[in-house]
Design brief:
single chain, mainly alpha, two-stranded parallel sheet, two-stranded antiparallel sheet, 9 helices, globular
């Protein structure tokens, strides 16, 4: 059914660089992920600047969130999905290039936010809201990286967006859902939606709640399409994470409107630009005589 619409198999491993041995060129996955991080940060900082927030404060917050989130993303993935491998090779936790978990990244990004809050003694809702606004942009390119190497295989299907024939190594086993592609589509819809929603003033915490509420049910459904994932009582770690994320998103949205932040700490605000020095009375009189 609709087999002629299937997406043909492809895989972008590396871009060859003259003078570099084959297989050691520019890694497409890493390039797309790095692009997503940089563009997501740029969108975050631009919105923060427009709201009058200090760029150094936002950049400092982003550093905590990205670094701790990246490390935790791998640790969560290995413990939740490959516990037997961690027990056998615990040093696997120190190899983040092997795999990452989106919900692990979210969870530890929040941990990074609380570390920042503890160190800087400032409320985390305001900067975290800026990060949430820029996240769909970063997510789009990050999941494009996943799609480029097809590292999120789903079940066999006749759905017209299936990749056919899907490969495990060199073995064709398709057609299958590609869950990386489905998240690319989600992010592509969220980017214009967030920019549209941002046309009106929103309370701090609004975009934290929105991204959680819009991503969690979508991810919950996608996890039913995953192939051979670890399950606990019939559900994957992603299912449980989605439920928790939906609850937290609903709470953040309720809090944004019912307990809004009305005062931004001065340490988070850009200093008002100094007015140009006014000429003295004698200089004004001299200028008037000259005219």
């Amino acid at each position: 059914m609709f087999s002629w619409l299937f997406i043909p198999w492809f895989k972008f491993e590396t871009i060859p660089i003259p003078g570099i041995p084959e297989g050691y060129g520019l890694h497409v996955f890493g390039l797309l992920v790095a692009t997503g991080v940089m563009l997501g940060i740029r969108v975050t900082e631009n919105r923060a600047r427009r709201l009058g927030l200090r760029a150094e404060v936002i950049s400092d917050f982003i550093g905590h969130v990205v670094i701790i989130g990246f490390i935790g993303s791998h640790v969560f993935d290995r413990i939740a999905y490959y516990p037997e491998r961690v027990l056998k090779e615990p040093w696997d936790l120190l190899m983040p290039w092997r795999s990452l978990s989106s919900f692990g990244g979210f969870l530890f990004a929040v941990v990074g936010a609380f570390v920042w809050k503890y160190r800087r003694k400032l409320d985390l809702t305001i900067p975290l809201d800026q990060v949430a606004f820029g996240m769909p942009v970063g997510w789009f390119f990050g999941r494009m990286g996943c799609f480029s190497v097809h590292d999120h295989p789903g079940k066999i299907t006749d759905f017209f967006l299936a990749v056919n024939p899907y490969h495990y190594g060199d073995l064709p086993v398709g057609p299958r859902h590609d869950l990386g592609l489905y998240e690319v589509i989600w992010a592509a819809c969220m980017i214009p939606l967030f920019f549209f929603l941002d046309r009106k003033p929103r309370p701090y915490g609004y975009f934290i709640g929105m991204i959680a509420l819009l991503y969690s049910p979508y991810r919950f459904m996608l996890d039913f399409l995953r192939d051979a994932d670890a399950t606990y009582f019939g559900l994957t770690p992603g299912h449980y994470s989605s439920i928790l994320s939906m609850i937290m998103g609903a709470y953040m949205l309720w809090r944004a409107y019912n307990r809004p932040i009305t005062t931004v700490p001065p340490a988070m605000l850009e200093a008002p630009s100094e007015a140009p020095p006014q000429p003295s009375k004698s200089k004004r009189a001299k200028a008037a005589r000259a005219r």
